[in-house]
Write a structure and sequence with these properties.
Layout lengths: L6 H8 L2 H24 L10 H34 L17 H27 L26
Helix pairs in contact: 2-3, 3-4
């Protein structure tokens, strides 16, 4: 008569860890992004007392909304690994050999590249558009007329 396997060992082997990590991470990421945007952003420095400060506050909030899910994914993965893949009492065997997973590696590289390049484009556009490209739009030259009085600047 064959000895039945322990149900927990069989269930552990059949569990789709990627799906579980995703299902734990997704609601945490959504809640974190909503909290950042709706609760933290209105109180985030430098405030909204000027248009420049408002643009900076928006830029910082966007970067925080993009960074929070990445940080939470790393924390969720680390916590999940500690809970599910730690050494159990009486288990003195080595685990199965680890082989690379090209699909996961390609997804991770592509996702991080998209995030970094997206933030690069966002930062560049936000730096150039509100203030110009540094061609001196805000400076007045000596001898030019002032807009309100028509008198000359010295």
């Amino acid at each position: 008569m064959a000895t039945p396997e322990a149900p927990s060992a069989h269930a552990q082997a059949e569990r789709n860890h990627g799906l579980w990590i995703f299902l734990i991470w997704l609601p945490l990421a959504v809640v974190a992004d909503l909290l950042i945007w709706l609760v933290w952003k209105p109180h985030m420095p430098p405030g909204t007392m000027s248009s420049s400060a408002e643009h900076q506050q928006f830029d910082i909030a966007v970067m925080a909304v993009v960074a929070a899910p990445v940080l939470l994914f790393v924390w969720v993965y680390a916590g999940y690994a500690l809970v599910n893949w730690h050494r159990r009492a009486g288990d003195d065997e080595d685990g199965p050999p680890i082989h690379g997973n090209a699909k996961i590696q390609a997804t991770w590289i592509a996702a991080t590249a998209v995030i970094v390049l997206g933030l690069f484009v966002f930062g560049t556009v936000e730096l150039i558009v509100p203030a110009g490209a540094g061609a001196g739009e805000g400076r007045r030259r000596s001898g030019s007329r002032t807009p309100h009085t028509g008198s000359r600047c010295r």
